[in-house]
Design brief:
2 domains, 224 residues
Length: 224
Amino acid sequence: MQQFKNLGEVFPSPFRKVDIPLDEMERDIRDVQRPMLSQDEKHEVPGCAEDLLAVYAGLDLNSEHGKDTPRRFLAMLNELTSHKNCNGDCMKWKTFPESVDQMIVVKKIPFYSVCNHHVIPFSGFAWVGYVPDGKVAGLSKFARVLNHFARKLQVQEVLTQEVVNFLEGHLKPKGLMVVTEAEHFCMTLRGAQVPGTTTRIVETLGVFADHSRTAKMEFLEAIK
C-alpha cells in the first residue's frame, strides 16, 4: 500500500497544488512500477488514474464525459497489454508433419502494440517467411503469434525478436525471416512530429541469414 500512497503524492489531486521537479517525478514513477498488485493495492489504482488524468491531462472529473474516463483508461491499458504476463507458453500451437521444402511466405499481417517508452500505440505490418524442415504450422498461427507478443508494452525491435525466437523454437525450420514495419505515434504525434515515418526491422535465421544464397532475395522479392 505504501507504494501507491507515494504515487498519490506524485500525482496530487486537482484540489491541491504541489510543484514537483520532473526528475523527481520520473524517479518516483519508476519506484512504483510493479508486475503484480495485491487486492488492497488494486483499490488504490483508480484514484491514482483520476489524479494523473486530472492534473496532467486536464480531465474534468465532474463532467458527464470525464467522470468514467479513469475507469475506461485503465480498462484500455489492461486490454492493450492483455498478454503482459505470458511469454508464449499460454498460446495453443500445433504443427503438421510435411516433407515440403519450398519457401512459405505470409504477407502483411497487421499488428498494434504500445510503446514501452511513452505508452502510445504503434502499428504496422509483418511479413514472415520460412523454409520447413519436416513440419509446417497453420497459417493463422503466424498472426496469432505476432499479436500475442504485441499485446504488452513493447519496442519494435524486441517484438520482432520475440516472434522470431518463438517460431524458431516451435518450427525448427531450415530458415526463418521476419520483417516488421510500423508507424510510431510517439514520433508522429509528439516529439519530432513526423507523420508517415515508418521503422522497419529485419530478423533472419538459417538459410535466410546466408548472404551467399538466394533465399533472402527470394523472400524480399516475394513481399514487394
